[in-house]
Design goal:
five-stranded mixed beta sheet, three-stranded parallel beta sheet, 11 helices, D-Maltodextrin-Binding Protein, domain 2, 2 domains, globular, 13 strands
Length: 290
């Protein structure tokens, strides 16, 4: 009997040592274990609220309707995600260029506002990519016939928001399409927002503008024929849900929730409602590699 008790004591000591080696003593998970955690973080689960940052000026992804209420594909995706995760969605509005800081400082839990996943942003944040965006050059419907081949953009004035990745894409386009071939450069007009760039086009101060193809799908419904996409799509990055770097548990929960929406058909149904079903994709974490 004594030998049995000694064996039990030795087994207990061995088990304790094993726990210590894996970093799980006193209920504290190791870094490896934490990365595999599932479900929402405890603080979000306890509050029952997921705070989402957005800038409501990018239809049809997010905007305010005639009654001043938030509307759009992202807004409906957020609400469905909240249902899947079992929490209430609290929208926290801010200017687009302040959204990343809102996540870094903890003012919001995540950002979902037509934001592209880029390598630069991945330095301080993680993304769940959920929509294959499509950047487009466009002009007024009346002038669309002036732009039938790529070089037709050279020597023209092009308005684009300086706060989006389309600005850098247009700069590269100017080099490869125009200046490297000895053609007149595109005069790039930096605006403070997508609507600001569109205003330059509306007022005749720009010949072209650059924006997400999602916008153009929306305008084609609300103002048919007013604008027209021209030339080939820009190599746009996917839109992603941004979370503060290293918050792996929240990233896992978001991706899992989106996967369930994708598999149920709810995700595609929302995109199709807003005329942007072309951008449907399976959610992936930090999918941009270059």
């Amino acid at each position: 009997m004594k030998n049995v008790k000694n064996a039990a004591r030795l087994a207990a000591v061995a088990a304790t040592a094993a726990l210590a080696l894996t970093g799980c003593v006193s209920g504290t998970a190791s870094t490896g274990a934490a990365s595999a955690e599932t479900g929402l973080p405890a603080a979000i689960k306890a509050s029952g609220t997921l705070r989402v940052g957005l800038s409501a000026n990018f239809p049809p992804m997010e905007f305010k309707d005639a009654e001043g209420k938030y509307a759009g594909a992202d807004v409906e995706l957020q609400q469905k995600l909240g249902e899947v995760l079992g929490v209430k969605i609290e929208v926290v509005e801010a200017p687009f260029d302040q959204l990343i800081n809102s996540a870094q400082t903890g003012r919001v839990d995540m950002v979902m506002s037509g934001m592209s996943d880029t390598l630069e942003r991945q330095k301080t944040a993680d993304f769940v990519d959920y929509f294959a965006s499509q950047g487009r050059l466009y002009t007024t419907g009346a002038r669309a016939g002036e732009f039938t081949k790529p070089e037709d953009a050279c020597g023209k004035k092009l308005a684009v928001s300086g706060k989006t990745d389309y600005f850098e894409q247009v700069k590269k386009l100017n080099t490869t399409l125009c200046t490297d071939k000895g053609l007149a450069p595109i005069e790039i007009m930096s605006a403070d927002s997508g609507p600001g760039a569109r205003l330059q086009l509306d007022q005749g101060r720009a010949d072209l503008a650059a924006q997400g193809g999602e916008n153009l799908a929306y305008f084609n419904k609300t103002e048919p024929g007013k604008y027209a996409p021209v030339l080939e799509p820009l190599p746009a990055k996917p839109l992603g849900i941004l979370v503060k770097k290293g918050n792996t548990q929240l990233i896992n929960a978001i991706q899992d929730g989106l996967n369930k929406m994708y598999d149920s058909g709810d995700y595609k149904k929302i995109l199709d409602k807003w005329g942007i079903g072309y951008g449907a994709m399976k959610p992936v974490v930090n999918g941009v590699k270059a």
